[in-house]
Amino acid sequence: MPKADVVTWKDLPSQTDGGAERRKFLGAGASLNHVVFKAGTAAPRHSHAHEQFVMVVEGRALLTCEAGPVDLRPGMVIRFDPDAWHSADFVEDTVLIEVNLPPAG
User: Fold this and answer.
1) I want to staple 87 with a disulfide (CB 3.0 to 4.6 A). Which of 45, 53, 72, 97 is the partner?
2) Where are the strands (E) in the chain, listed by range?
């Protein structure tokens, strides 16, 4: 029988690394992540094998990607194709929601 899972972010375990605190909500075919970056944190250039959507909830970051530099602010949403490179410098404490979708097939 199909089910629904209901959680609050604070009830999920957190992982902290390099100025970022991550909480992951796993689904059958995707993951939803709540990520808090401290001001001054840098995410060096990287890419993912999966498609990714990122929504800026609060704060400010300077994103660099193939499309050029982007001044990220609350309410903005970004979509990355699989293997699309990007990096970011977090100017303020920043909260992001990420949706990660595995490759098709």
Assistant:
1) 45
2) 14-17, 20-26, 31-37, 42-46, 51-58, 61-65, 68-72, 77-80, 86-90, 94-101
Q: Do 39 and 105 form a contact (C-beta atoms < 8 A)?
A: no
3-state secondary structure of 47: coil
Residue-range domains of the chain with CATH: 17-59+69-101 (2.60.120.10)
Mean pLDDT of 58-86: 97
Instruction: Give the pLDDT confidence of 40-56 residue by residue, as tens digits.
Output: 999 999 999 999 999 99
End-to-end C-alpha distance for the chain, whole angstroms = 25
Q: What does pLDDT average to over the chain? A: 95
Separation in Å, CA 22 to CA 15, 25, 36, 75: 5, 10, 7, 20
